## 1
Amino acid sequence: MKNILKSTLVLLSVLVAFTSCDNASSKSNSGALSSSAAEKVYVAPGEHDEFYAFISGGFSGQLSVYGLPSGRLFKVIPVFSQDAEKAYGYNEETKPMLNTSHGFVPWDDAHHPDISQTNGVVDGRWVFINGNNTPRIAKIDLSTFETTEIIEVPNSAGNHSSSFVTENSEYVVAGTRFSVPIPQKDMPIKDYKGNFKGSLSFISIDPEHGHMDIKFQLIMPGFDYDLSHPGRGKSHGWFFFTTYNTEEASTLMEVNASQNDKDFIAAVNWKKIEEYVNNGGGTMMPANYAHNVYDEATHSATSTMKKEVRIVNPLDVPGAVYFLPTPKSPHGCDVDPTGEYIVGNGKLSANLTVHSFTKMLNAIENNKVAGDAYGIPILNFEDVLAGVVEQPGLGPLHTEFDGKGNAYTTFFISSEVVKWKLGTWEVVDRQPCYYSVGHLMIPGGNSQKPFGKYVVAMNKITKDRYLPTGPEVTQSAQLYDISGEKMELLLDFPTVGEPHYAAGCPADLVKPRSKKLFKLEDNKHPYATLNEADAKVVRDGKTVHVYMTTIRSHFAPDNIEGIKVGDKVYFHITNLEQDYDVPHGVSMIGANTSELLIMPGQTETFLWEPKQIGVWPFYCTDFCSALHQEMQGYVRVSPANSNTPLKWSLGEDIE
Amino acid sequence: MKNILKSTLVLLSVLVAFTSCDNASSKSNSGALSSSAAEKVYVAPGEHDEFYAFISGGFSGQLSVYGLPSGRLFKVIPVFSQDAEKAYGYNEETKPMLNTSHGFVPWDDAHHPDISQTNGVVDGRWVFINGNNTPRIAKIDLSTFETTEIIEVPNSAGNHSSSFVTENSEYVVAGTRFSVPIPQKDMPIKDYKGNFKGSLSFISIDPEHGHMDIKFQLIMPGFDYDLSHPGRGKSHGWFFFTTYNTEEASTLMEVNASQNDKDFIAAVNWKKIEEYVNNGGGTMMPANYAHNVYDEATHSATSTMKKEVRIVNPLDVPGAVYFLPTPKSPHGCDVDPTGEYIVGNGKLSANLTVHSFTKMLNAIENNKVAGDAYGIPILNFEDVLAGVVEQPGLGPLHTEFDGKGNAYTTFFISSEVVKWKLGTWEVVDRQPCYYSVGHLMIPGGNSQKPFGKYVVAMNKITKDRYLPTGPEVTQSAQLYDISGEKMELLLDFPTVGEPHYAAGCPADLVKPRSKKLFKLEDNKHPYATLNEADAKVVRDGKTVHVYMTTIRSHFAPDNIEGIKVGDKVYFHITNLEQDYDVPHGVSMIGANTSELLIMPGQTETFLWEPKQIGVWPFYCTDFCSALHQEMQGYVRVSPANSNTPLKWSLGEDIE
């Protein structure tokens, strides 16, 4: 056994070594670029980019907003990780966003953003994204570019085949990557096979507000569910998931989960299951999971712990789930704009397999079944096969579409993007990536209507592409022009976090939705101070509430006395500005938390627990005016047993 | 009194309103750009930028590394704020870096980076940067691009006139912005005048390792010390600090600290004080402050709490400190490459005042003193004046130099960069900024040898310059070509965090220093596992140490049993890779901490306290190879009273 392992490892090492070679030709390649590449990516001062790209930060846990074609970074939206700059996960308002059944979890691995759709077209309302590690799905509102909801996914682990949206945003779907005991229990790991399970969660989206609710979880065999995409057009109502580790191995997976020549794409008829559930089907199962909602009116989040979830056994809904054999350990599971073709990117396969939705329906109708896995029917490979792209590259991972009949597939091992034709399966172009490309993105690529002007390749290795920054080098993406017959590499652009996966759309879809400020009159924060005259300090035992305001260029109050060592002091700060782009920031010296960065019309709160007597300053941390440096104040902290009265002032001495 | 305040506020509001108007001409301006701007900023795929720019994140607390002329972001170096992506401030190794006398402080306001110098020229060894809020100075090592030391500055508040380096890196200097009681005590804020003090700290830099140590603190009158710069060349041995609030007001500072027509530049002869101190001068004063050092060999930081600091009363060292009258509330305090001119950027002044070092020495020699402030001699304005740049703009903040006899000053209120000539004081060019520029940077600008090809303007307002991202818009910088007689605006580039201040240098100065990996043989982490065969799990009561390794594409061990609810499990993970750019990442589902992101040859540790029984997976979070998805493992958690034996395995079942 050990020898077999070793020889397999040697083979794999060769593949690995291939990916990690420096590509010596990169510099000479650049010389061959047309001089117009510079003009094509240049967005002159004052001009705007044509597309938004929402690129996940991968292991940063966040979602980044870039412009295309410039590759410029406009915002890092905090989603699953604390952000000390923006106070996300530090201030009292957003701490509940990171609550889970395991307690406060300040990080996650953010993977696959997807934009909401209406009638199969991206609509620019919301972006959904999954946290892999502690399974969660988040929703970002594209009027504020803030995370407004996070729902934990119970009975899941390595929440990877997520978070893709159906064509009318009926559901955002989250599939587990690692199977686990469901429900969790203390059992030997070696008993994995047959006992560990996967789950595919269909989370409904409220059409008006986007609120998420787990409609049902489909409990599946203990495979790894890697990626997924919705059907569209003719295949709307279905969802497709790649699987690997159909071997159900539970140790040294790089070898043991790579034995089968074919794994599966799971085809799920969610419309059928929805009907079953609407008629009372499924079982309510106890499950603890957090549902965290940020309310724009109160500028505050609340976390609710849910207690049960509806589970569905696929065997109880005949005709709802099928397995399509797919070579080998497929990663991406991609559906073309017509909904007819399902591409299985078999990462250890020499060829690219494309399934036909029409053929799949025919096979189902004719009951042509090759066998079953834990009772779920397996169709014949040949019966569902649309075509094969022969030997297009090594290590296919992900395919996107340009809406003009072309597909673009990334190859990790041979480090390239390959363009091929749907239907004829012929390769028409290939371009190298620097280096080891993972996913790629064409704006609108996961919809009926892609905007096939650019493709972004998201790379896993960077090495020598930029000025070095020590052992940790930047992550990187590359932009190609795909408007012509041949692709043209335009730009290398570095990214914050891993550029794991992306969604994009035309800028005009989002720009009109983007808010410039929060109206003060709509501020329903329970501790808001809407007029400077109402600023005050209120003591309640050892708890003190400071109702403070900011406006250029002072705090009200700016001096406070009567705070004592051992107090819990809540600073509730309302930014009274009502102009675009005039935030104020604040923190206390020695505070064991982050600053606040308060947008116009907003209220935020930090907790300060003074430990030392003295007179301690605070100040505005966001350069707000010519007199920003003068925007400061002092808090006098007296001993716990002091009689210093609670007083505050602005512009006059405290007597 | 209130009416006077109000009328002053109206005047100030006019200034403020000026800065916040959208500049309607921005779009039409861009049309006038030469088409070559695109070519000038374009760095083709595979090519490298010419300069490094180290731009502080301001209220993000971090330091960002950009390339010029492309404006691309290569790394966000965590300095004063936690970073969940890189585990900074979360893993056991770096938590001590954020320790202070106030406890763990997970954020700061990072302001003024400065590159170390040798013989008055930037040498690319270290970058120093100040934390404003909880006064600290950090050192970043440019071989690893990591923060390797942070020293807290006692007797300080709003640590702003920092962290500038003398011309042989003898000292990094940190001046307090807000005066406070020294030592801190419980006293009325209204007693500020005469009782609150400022402090100017001279922190010695070990020439070999860069280790920092507070040599002495100069205790100064209770003004606000805003910015500072070292003398150089002829003025080497002196340090210059701008002051404001010489009124010693303590409330509504935007009005009360703007009354005097002139404030001061404080000129400090640190060589003289150094000699005094070396001869036993000054007084040791009790003071608690943290000194945190990261050791590259152990990959770990330690925090030491220091107990005393040497203070110096300037009156005890005659001839060491002088005040130079300077209009009005000066911000930047900038010294030209020859060391002769000291520019006071009077932010509320109509003109720009330039002092002469030679004249200052003459005035001192001839004892021409106009008066004193708390015993410190005030020189005559006319005696030290080199010249005045007449009405160059509104709201001057900061001046840099190109080494060719030109100076470049930012004007916040009139939103422009103005080029003028040293010696003749004539304005030769001006270019608008979008909008409200704060500081600016020419690579090497704070040295005897600037590299005057580009200037970067760092703006405070962005508004409509990029695609909108809700109420919070990106921060922004602008790049100008200054190689010709007239400046040319080339590029708007967004920044992460506030682009508060920057230092830059030619790329060739740093590239040869940049390490590609950490040698495994040099790894002295106490819990390192240098061979896969040595991987193990050790229980010590309720504490469990997991000695784990990573290499493409597995963990050793990958399965662990015998962990119990209530355990404290430390995962010490060593990345055995010895190739460039092959980090591995890891976290446990539900862990109440961040991931680890482990560079080749490095060991990092996270703490996991399992709360629920079950079988819980972990996985590699950094896409490392074609079989990255298979790089995973499981931990079985049993009840606290269970007898499940502690076992672990790789590739074989745990029996």
Note: Residues 64 and 76 of chain B are 4 Å apart (CA to CA).
## 2
Amino acid sequence: MVMPLALLEKSMNKNISLLLKDNRTLEGKLTGYDEYMNMVLEDTEERTSEQTRRLGVVILRGNNVVSISPL
Amino acid sequence: MVMPLALLEKSMNKNISLLLKDNRTLEGKLTGYDEYMNMVLEDTEERTSEQTRRLGVVILRGNNVVSISPL
Amino acid sequence: MVMPLALLEKSMNKNISLLLKDNRTLEGKLTGYDEYMNMVLEDTEERTSEQTRRLGVVILRGNNVVSISPL
Amino acid sequence: MVMPLALLEKSMNKNISLLLKDNRTLEGKLTGYDEYMNMVLEDTEERTSEQTRRLGVVILRGNNVVSISPL
Amino acid sequence: MVMPLALLEKSMNKNISLLLKDNRTLEGKLTGYDEYMNMVLEDTEERTSEQTRRLGVVILRGNNVVSISPL
Amino acid sequence: MVMPLALLEKSMNKNISLLLKDNRTLEGKLTGYDEYMNMVLEDTEERTSEQTRRLGVVILRGNNVVSISPL
Amino acid sequence: MVMPLALLEKSMNKNISLLLKDNRTLEGKLTGYDEYMNMVLEDTEERTSEQTRRLGVVILRGNNVVSISPL
């Protein structure tokens, strides 16, 4: 059994990909999270089919996140 | 009586299909979950009528899930 | 007085119809539920005006359910 | 002062009309409710400007209800 | 300082206007409310730019209410 | 550090501007609020690019508010 | 590990950029926040691709915020 938060813990300081409710995809290094799945990403990039936008450090609110994938 | 979370427990390490609120369908092996129906899937694939996309390991937020089916 | 959850209890192992927030209608045998109206259905079918799709066993998240009718 | 739940209590075994968030209107005999305004209706009919559909017994989730009127 | 619920209390048995999330406007006499801003209105009318519809007694769920104005 | 509720307190009896989730903008004198950011406004005006509508006293539900600005 | 709220604390009195659920982007100096990620911004500007609008002091409700970036 891999609890969802345990997998976040294992992904610390590694690159992850996030799908948000507004259909944006973010990639960045996970440097923090809390029990609500709020997350801190570094070197974040927003990727769409057309472009890549550098966002740097980002705090994500967990309730906007659909899914999280380690990269 | 099969409690919903008990059925998730029985589905551990088996393939399940998830329908998300944004109408995407994911299939993968359930390797973890918590009381909020957050889930961890491995070998996840997103399937639409047009294509299949390999997503690998995915943490799903339970509040985006509409329904779950063992495969 | 018929409490809503008591009616679910009385519907156990019987066929019910569910209307979901995304306007899909599911029919199946209710084999479990919990206090949040999460439900387990067996022999589930999704019915639209155009087609019937067999879904088998399904866990439904209660917060996606609009209404439930015993059949 | 008429507390909202007290008015539901007074409406027991009487016909009520419900407006749902998805703009459907249901009419039926209120035979049960709980503190979340989940309700049980009997002899329920869904009424739109074009048609009337008989739904029989229905459990309504309170969070889909906009307003309730005794008939 | 006028606490929001205190203003509701002061509006008891007076006419108020409600704007709902679905953009409908209701007017009626406030005859009850609870801590969630669920409300009971009497002699309720729904007003749109095109027409006025008499709804009589209505229980409103507070989470559908955007704003309330004493008349 | 200015806590958000402390800034509301400092704005008491002063004019504020509110942006609501439905994109309406309201201006009025803040005469009350509670811990949920429900608010009471007096001399409220709704402003759109096309018109100004006088609303008088308004109770606003906090969960419909996007942002608040002292004027 | 950088907890999301700790990063907000570190961003106090510095400029941050906020993406809201309605797709607006705000920039301003963070002068306060609370546990719900409600925030107080000063010298706030709303930026769209077409224009910049000065908003001054703004209280933001946390549940409308998608992501936060220190600038």
Note: The first strand of chain E starts at residue 15 and ends at 20.
## 3
Amino acid sequence: MDSQEFREAAKAAIDEITEYYDNVASHRVVSDVKPGYLRPLLPASAPLDPEPWSAIHADVHYPAALAEMYSNTFNGAHFNWICSPAVTELETVVMDWLAQALALPECYLSGGSTHGGGVIHGSASEAILTVMCAARDKYLNAVTAGLPADSEEKEEATWKHRSKLVAMGSAGAHSSTKKAAQILGVRFVTVPIDEDASFAMTGAAVAKTVADLRARGLEPFYLTASLGTTDVAAVDDFAGIAEVLSPTAGTAQDIWVHVDAAYAGSALILEENQPLTTPLAHFHSFNFNPHKWLLTTFDCSAVWVRSRAWLISALSIKPHYLRNEFSDNELVTDYRDWQIPLGRRFRSLKLWFVLRSYGIRGLQAHIRRGVVLGESLEAKLKSRPDLFSIFTPARFGLVTLRVAGADEDEVNARTERVYEGINADGEFYLTSTMVNGKFAIRVCTGVERVAEEHVQRLFDILVERAGAEVGKKA
Amino acid sequence: MDSQEFREAAKAAIDEITEYYDNVASHRVVSDVKPGYLRPLLPASAPLDPEPWSAIHADVHYPAALAEMYSNTFNGAHFNWICSPAVTELETVVMDWLAQALALPECYLSGGSTHGGGVIHGSASEAILTVMCAARDKYLNAVTAGLPADSEEKEEATWKHRSKLVAMGSAGAHSSTKKAAQILGVRFVTVPIDEDASFAMTGAAVAKTVADLRARGLEPFYLTASLGTTDVAAVDDFAGIAEVLSPTAGTAQDIWVHVDAAYAGSALILEENQPLTTPLAHFHSFNFNPHKWLLTTFDCSAVWVRSRAWLISALSIKPHYLRNEFSDNELVTDYRDWQIPLGRRFRSLKLWFVLRSYGIRGLQAHIRRGVVLGESLEAKLKSRPDLFSIFTPARFGLVTLRVAGADEDEVNARTERVYEGINADGEFYLTSTMVNGKFAIRVCTGVERVAEEHVQRLFDILVERAGAEVGKKA
């Protein structure tokens, strides 16, 4: 869809929206469809090719913007099935489509063997808080399962365990894990990462952290692993982590592993990245944000769990005014029990429009473009070893780099000055990171509308500024 | 703005949006404005009259829909000031405008004496979880303040207190308070309400609950009071509650009181309701949802606190990649520290468009219409005492009613049958409530596009169905 097609489609949507409001009184106020009505009406998976393919311009996100217009028109709070069956059922179908497109293990599908499923949250922070809450309750239920229900003994034991709970995340995990622990009032401990392992969290580091915590009488119950860390897009060693946690898997001491792929998860749509998902079958939950790199407008964070009962058990409450025959008979999904808020927006419409407008192949082309641009920047930087060192190589469209210098202090100082100079100019806005005392510039090419000409222009500016720092002509 | 005006304005917006994307590369990527740049450019309060007044049709919500179109165009995550200064600064200004329009005590204004301020969340559930989290940390900090920082003694004392914390809400408070307590892992206790006090929570009931809890060694730290309960729109006795909590106000045992006005808060825009807000100066936080009754599209929940430091202290974390000179020097507001998620949508644009398009007077006219329609239905129901009893009188556009009968069981059974019959027809969708064993039908007239003709039609249907139940001709 190019900008002219968007212009026409959007204006047609405006006409529909206006007519919808003008005639709203003539619509039925409550739906008379039956639970499960929607899935048979839709394809079993997202289209490979866009509809129509010829219209794809992989660098615009108009389909999601159109979906938002409709979503705001329906303007519901959509907190249970009976409010708006289509909102609920489309979300289930679209999240299955998306899980298939990313090659998530079948346990994360709504019809999978472990009764998993997906839900759309607003942000990765909410996703992580929600799964950490479910992990906590799952753990507390398991470790006190032997005690009589509602007994004082059980109450006391639960409080004793609560006071010892530890949530873990690697030093490279996004700060939202620490924030979630702070909100839930549980301890947070960092698993160290090492430049030698490309800043990935290893099984050995997890094993050591868990052993140290247990030796201190503490109870690790949750771990965030990352598929693409915020700083440098590192991928943790999932197989190694699964291996060291396997002795307690399925026992009361089972440690919930959540994989946060907020940014890089979109790259799982490329077949070459899909082997990364195999070990997820040993873990408990997964999220990524289509609003970051999958051409979907903010906000849209996709979350899957291996067993939906974990979420519902932690988050369900049933006041009278939310009861209805469909929910009471467990015929339907009430997504309010899969999230923190009660109300929810019709976000699945965005994913539905995006998946159908681009098709899987269109989305693959878009993601590959960002990956290739990152590799292009890396190649350019490598052509000037007198000026730059690659801190971490191009991965998922992210390159991090440092300016050459005699020692760590000089490298840090020069890199920071180049970074601040470029941002002050206002033509590009870069971000930076400080990992194990090393300051590096981050350049992300996995962004809509970034093209080779922008990468070249940024490289030229980097050369000019780094050249001035290093004292050579550019 | 009528539907034709919306149609034209929306199509003009589409043209602007298309041009924005087509020329996005020519814009400066990071803003060069200075903190505080926006407030001097805007009026000090929302306009009394709409712009232009003649265009107001109080029953459409187009301005918010237009704002959503622009908001989705800018499509940022807006988590700190530097990302998008306008998003932050407009929110501060608009939340001050709104606080003034609702006559909230000055302590809730951003420039107020206690450094309060407002923030927009997605839903009341998030608002309540967020303030309960802040209340918990404020309480724990206060009761352990005498112990040395980072000492084992302090750590132990904190855990001892954590295990005794109790969040309270009346039996009429929305279920989101119970859900927030469940998420935070603190006890939840209900304060009883009584039909004799019109289902309002009284100071005496709070005092008794608090005394009972303390006698059991527990530590009540938080209370949700309601301005318009979900079931019957009751208003709790704020003055009485403030009075009984005054002995511990400002001490380490201070109980945080949050006033949830999710639905009825919009009615504070009417001067006759504004005396209700005076006692809020003794409380800690307040929220209402403009998306319920103030012509704003879902989602938009407005929250104010008396001291913003309480939120920031509970929710702030500062990883390297979120740092920047403006935040580090505390020159600006970073709303990510006032909420659970990191990213945030540009929701203040909706409120800004709504306040300017309708003006305070236009919004007052809209709210008054819903109130008057509720009174109209109540009068009609009272004209048929043979068929109906008023369970709770029209308040904020909500009437609850029961069908006549010989005893409570017959009344409940008849009322439920009338309720289910009407919903099965699909012309109207009513909700119900069960309060102290009494089943009642809820009719809410505080909704856009509900007009006298709909109230009359609903009354006719109620008469027909209740007449059949009571065994008389309608």
Note: The mean pLDDT of chain A is 88.
